Amino acid sequence: MFDTLKHACLGGCLDLRVRDGVIRRLIGKGLHAGVLDRGQISYPEEGTPQGGVISPLLANIYLHYVLDCWYVEEGLGRKLKGHFGYFGITGNSEALRRYRREVIKVWRKWLARRGGPQGMPWERMHRLLAFFYLPAARVIHSIYAAKP
């Protein structure tokens, strides 16, 4: 998988998290370093240098971004949409908002467990929510639109 990783895609992931120019140049040098294979040097246009010192770092950055996006969009986002589709009836909007808040609290708790002993401050959680879209609580089915 990592031997076909597009450098532009990885650069987009890095743009979201890494602002330090020195680190970016170091990563660029690692990506554009030559690969020695059976006495021949090649300069691949894609992929991370397998066996290189920087390869595990780049793989972790990429997977962190991709898996987090997938988890939020395909996991939490889908679950919330399904919940709102089933329970989203007239008069139930406050319960839907409460359910969404509880999902965010549980997500924050699990992120805090992997983030270290200081936990996940709410200001960081709000930045994360601005970055990853979770659907808003909304009423899907109106009892007034139902046929008698």
Describe the protein's architecture and organization.
The protein is mostly helical and 148 residues long. The chain has one domain (7-131). 59% of the residues lie in helices and 4% in strands. It has five helices and two strands. A two-stranded antiparallel sheet has the order 1-2. The radius of gyration is 22 Å and the shape is elongated. 6% of the residues are buried. The mean pLDDT is 80.
Strand % is: under 5%
Alpha-beta classification: mainly alpha
Q: Count of helical segments?
A: 5
Q: How confident overall, as mean pLDDT?
A: 80
Tell me the helix content.
Answer: 55-70%
Number of extended strands: 2
Key terms for this structure?
about 150 residues, mainly alpha, two-stranded antiparallel ribbon
